[in-house]
Amino acid sequence: MAVSNNITACINFLALLCTVPVAATGLWLAAKQGEECARLARWPVAILGLLLVAVALAGFAGARYNRRGLLACYLFAMAALIALLLALLVFAFVVAHDSGGYPVLGRAYQDYRLDGFSPWMRSYVSDDPARWEGIRACLAASDTCRKLAANGAFITPEQFYQSHLSPVQSGCCKPPTACGYAYVSPTVWTSPANPAADADCAAWSNDPAQLCYGCGSCKAGVLGGLREEWRKANVALLVAAVALIFVYVIGCSAFRNAQTEDLFRRYKWGNHY
Predict the structure, then answer these.
(1) How does pLDDT run along the chain (273 residues), one tens digit per residue?
(2) How wide is the angle at C-alpha 177 spanned by C-alphas 175 and 180, nearest 5°?
């Protein structure tokens, strides 16, 4: 095999390595179900990652065994998949840009409201009542709020107010701060000072099976948890995409050089004979 073909094979192997983080991130998103009890658009990332791995394998095989047609198909397919990956990253950035979390005076944690999220994310918990009922039942059966209630570190209200709660804990395990409930324990609150401040004030219950699972703030907390997962995944996807584009550009150049070398060799042999 010519030197250029060896170089092309090495570059395609690097491209294959760059696709592994994309597939791994997609599979992690698809398999992981955190405390928010929901999965949001996770399979497209896994499928895209697996397609990238398959195409990169085909490109490596084409370079290794000098199959020009396979290499050309690889270059076209990889370009399309990279474009899809970039489109997915832009989409994820746009829809997950707004956090839905709002700072609260005198609190280390944030309160969450649905109107702080993008319409696409809001539709996930608002447009399908059956889906939300499933998420709500999962939250009620989980130990997220039970662990918070059993935390012995919160002896005084101030200790709780200065704690850093997850979005689900903040949205589902306590009432909104604006209601003015008096703290008794992390999941027991009494005597709201301003019950008309938020529609969720009336939805709060000290019943461990109810709490604020029926609140809009709980839906917002679930979206806040999903957003945090997506932002972590986006970092890995962005790094992989940049590396993949860099290797792909080098691969295109190596493929072109290999073709030029092959043409020159044929021309040389033709003149020799």
Answers:
(1) 455 566 777 887 888 888 888 888 888 877 766 666 777 667 788 888 899 999 988 888 887 777 778 888 888 898 999 999 999 899 888 888 888 899 999 999 999 999 989 898 888 888 888 889 999 999 999 999 999 999 888 889 999 999 999 999 999 999 999 999 999 999 999 988 898 889 899 999 999 999 999 999 999 999 999 888 888 888 888 998 998 998 888 877 776 666 665 555 555 555 444
(2) 90
CA distance 9 to 229: 35
Cα separation, 193 vs 179, in Å, equals 6
Report the interhelical angle of 43-64 vs 68-95 (nearest 10°): 160
Cβ(148)–Cβ(161) under 8 Å?
Answer: no
Tokens of 255: 């493929």
Cβ partners under 8 Å of residue 266, min gap 6: none
Helix (H) or strand (E) holding 131: helix 129-141
- Residues across the chain: 273
**Across the strands, what pairs with 111?**
102
The predicted model scores a pTM of 0.83
